[in-house]
Design goal:
Blueprint (H helix, E strand, L loop, with lengths): L1 H5 L8 E5 L4 E5 L7 E2 L4 E7 L2 E6 L4 E6 L6 E2 L4 E7 L1
Antiparallel strand pairs: 1-8, 2-4, 2-7, 3-6, 4-5, 6-8
Amino acid sequence: MEALLDHGEGLLVPERMIVAPAVGTFRPVSLRDGAQLSVGQTVGMVDGPGTSTPVASPFTGQLVGMLVHPGERLREGQPVAWLRVH
């Protein structure tokens, strides 16, 4: 039974998502697919009523692609971009 519990323990999933930190309208910064991102780098802004919140990468990695379009309305926690981490 113990062997079943260990199954998958070493699994490395190299993809991560950057998610919206707030509700609002997405305004991306200019980034190309394949760009190298570092922790804290801004990929866009979420503009709400009287606020503008940066969408920052919590990971270092390569941008695979954006998952939302400029001007798209976002909910908090919605995936915004897809990264391949090192």
